[in-house]
């Protein structure tokens, strides 16, 4: 096993994921990913024929995002037909998993040059669009473990961890302020490219569309909890509600405190991101200047009802593989699926909050499910270079009780 190097990373701006309100909603998701592929190729100046494989994460792989969206995006980009491509789904961790699989490929010697990333058009295909729900409707599986929706899990975690509404709203406000500062100071400019109408060439979107820099503590406090009615939904044969099922597994909670709102949960957006990775041999042969190397990668399963607590233990696993401690990491990107997840992870690992999501996160910027992991990696890399720091850890919670983590080190 040799080293895997990150050569470059690009992403689209995140567009609001609502038809008629988002600038990217008229664009086919294949075209969204194709533009990311071409932006990466233009910046690098390499021949697309040298790409050993394209690996793309995408969660809702139905309709426009079905039929192996990665392969169709390669064809839509006009790349040579010899370039193969595969789509994968590890729920919210899909984009980062695509990068990790690409890194494994080049580190093992199986390939020399890979493009990895992800795409999600949430305006076209919203959460749950594939019809699978949490468990594919497997009644026998539900008898073993009932996987409640993620919003119920997030509120249950907050209840068990004594995380308050004030805590999650404060984190949400920090995310918005950090994102606003990052946009004002052009901290995202290095990775961003303008998305264009493939027919006319007109620019559709140049900057992230979702952030709300005028967000206030008062405005966040006025929002109603998002998952109260869901928690009261009867789903069991004997009248069990979703909250009741969760409490049966965690009776110490006594009553779920529903504190997550639209303001302190991740935003629904459209977007795509890709990363180029190369082997040590290829870097030397081509005289490339890598931006970073991947120091360690890890995945981990955790209890599937609680579901969202894996970022802390999977980060510890990656740190062990790298021979590092949490204090050795300069920057943390902990995906803001829900504010409570970030707070639980930060507390569990004893991380300085000032090192976490310094340019905002998915609460302010949005969470285009299959693309987010690759976006977070690019954001971390840009920030390491901007500040002259050396190491970053990207970690994400994943539906069904999984986590993923990747450690970068600047070259």
UniProtKB/TrEMBL annotation:
GO terms for molecular function: acetyl-CoA C-acetyltransferase activity. Keywords: Acyltransferase, Transferase. InterPro entries: Thiolase, Thiolase-like, Thiolase_acyl_enz_int_AS, Thiolase_AS, Thiolase_C, Thiolase_CS, Thiolase_N. Its EC number is 2.3.1.9. The keyword Transferase applies. Residues 288-410 form the Thiolase C-terminal domain. The keyword Acyltransferase applies. Coiled coil: none annotated. Residues 5-246 form the Thiolase N-terminal domain. PROSITE patterns: THIOLASE_1 (PS00098), THIOLASE_2 (PS00737), THIOLASE_3 (PS00099). It holds the Pfam family Thiolase_C. PANTHER family: ACETYL-COA C-ACYLTRANSFERASE, BLR7806 PROTEIN. Belongs to the thiolase-like superfamily. Thiolase family. This is Acetyl-CoA C-acetyltransferase. It comes from Corallococcus praedator.
